[in-house]
From TrEMBL:
Species lineage: Eukaryota, Sar, Alveolata, Apicomplexa, Aconoidasida
Pfam (any one): DUF155
Entry protein name: DUF155 domain-containing protein
Domain DUF155, residue spans: 44-218
Family: Belongs to the RMD1/sif2 family.
GO cellular component, as recorded: mitochondrion
Coiled-coil intervals: none
């Protein structure tokens, strides 16, 4: 993962200027050769999410591609790079995935299989980043929850309610990023008409335990949201109790004032 977001159309223009041989789609660029960037064998697969998948000897050209990718980054936000790898061997039969090794066909299906595998690798790397980022966010939320315990004891309920609402909103945003914004379990549009490649995509996803890891992250987010809901309910109960006490106090004062007024009226009549 080289950046947060790549403008593929901008990258395509830069590749064209460097006389690259490539396949372009709105969701990916597959570069097969670019001598200007020391890329003469293997292929490089780019997606708009900022991931580059390097095949074969194209690893040697990563340093040359990096500036082009960063120039096409639409966010320019610094971050730690993430990576994954699988061993690849060539076969005259069909492409298979077994024990972390890809047997890649040399038949006409090779390019389609590489695209399917590259999308799955893309998701594996994106999930590495999301796991780190969301786990860090949830840890910060848990620390904030622990701090709220002392605030609740101090009876500053308005501040607690605002903080809880903010934390719960962020937790829901984490769930949105994980499940809806990334679509890590969905087939890429370009694979919809290719059942074999969809199956290959699933097999590579499973090789990185992507469904299980997504499920674990969702459980963590759910636990955080449930904890925040429990605190919110407790704060609402405390707030209601405080309002009840205030109402009782106001009624008591009004009764006392009415009683004093009645006593004064009686004393005046006696005189």
């Amino acid at each position: 993962m080289l950046s947060h977001n790549i403008n593929l159309h901008d990258l395509r223009v830069k590749l064209h200027k460097h006389n690259a041989k490539y396949t372009f789609n709105d969701s990916f660029v597959l570069v097969k050769e670019c001598p200007d960037l020391s890329h003469e064998s293997g292929c490089v697969f780019f997606t708009n999410s900022g991931v580059a998948v390097l095949w074969g000897n194209s690893n040697n050209s990563l340093a040359s591609y990096r500036p082009l990718v960063q120039e096409s980054d639409e966010t320019n936000t610094p971050f730690d790079e993430f990576s994954e790898s699988l061993d690849v061997i060539e076969t005259s039969g069909g492409t298979l995935v077994h024990d972390g090794t890809i047997s890649l066909t040399t038949s006409d299906d090779r390019e389609y299989d590489q695209i399917a595998i590259s999308f799955a690798m893309n998701n594996a790397v994106k999930l590495n980043y999301l796991e780190m980022d969301i786990t860090k966010a949830l840890e910060l939320k848990n620390n904030a929850i622990n701090e709220l315990v002392n605030v609740v004891k101090s009876q500053n309920l308005d501040r607690v309610a605002r903080t809880l609402f903010d934390l719960e909103t962020r937790a829901h945003n984490c769930r949105y990023r994980l499940n809806l914004q990334q679509d890590l379990l969905e087939y890429p549009d370009v694979l919809w008409d290719y059942d074999k490649q969809c199956d290959l995509f699933n097999r590579v996803q499973n090789a990185f335990d992507i469904p299980k890891r997504l499920d674990n992250l969702n459980h963590r987010i759910s636990w955080t949201i449930q904890t925040l809901n429990s605190y919110s309910e407790y704060v609402r109960h405390k707030h209601s109790s405080r309002l009840e006490k205030i109402i009782i106090a106001v009624i008591s004062v009004e009764l006392a004032l009415a009683l004093i007024q009645a006593l004064r009226s009686n004393m005046k009549r006696e005189h």
